[in-house]
């Protein structure tokens, strides 16, 4: 007997989207911090 497709639970979808958004925000923040540190390091090394 085939199993009927069920509609996705909106709560779990929201949790998944929040988890992905948080991961994206952390990734962008880490990249921004690395660029910032790179500019500071370059300024210190060139002076």
Report what the structure shows:
It contains one helix and no strands. The chain is an all-alpha fold and 47 residues long. It is rod-shaped and about 70 Å long. The model has no long low-confidence stretch (mean pLDDT 86). The chain crosses the membrane at residues 25-45.
Concise account of the structure shown:
This protein has 47 residues and is mainly alpha-helical. The protein has one helix and no strands. It is 79% helix and 0% strand.
Secondary-structure map:
Layout: H1 10-46
Organism: Luteimonas terrae
Transmembrane segments: 25-45
Protein name: AI-2E family transporter
Provide the β-strand percentage band. under 5%
Mean pLDDT metric: 86
Question: Which structural class should the secondary elements be placed in?
Answer: mainly alpha
Termini gap: 75 Å
Instruction: Give the tally of β-strands.
Output: 0
**In percent, how helical is the residue content?**
over 70%
Give the number of helices.
1
Identify low-pLDDT runs.
none
Biggest sheet, open or closed, and with what strands and sense?
A: none
Secondary-structure element pattern, one letter each: H
Shape: rod-shaped
Rg calc:
21 Å
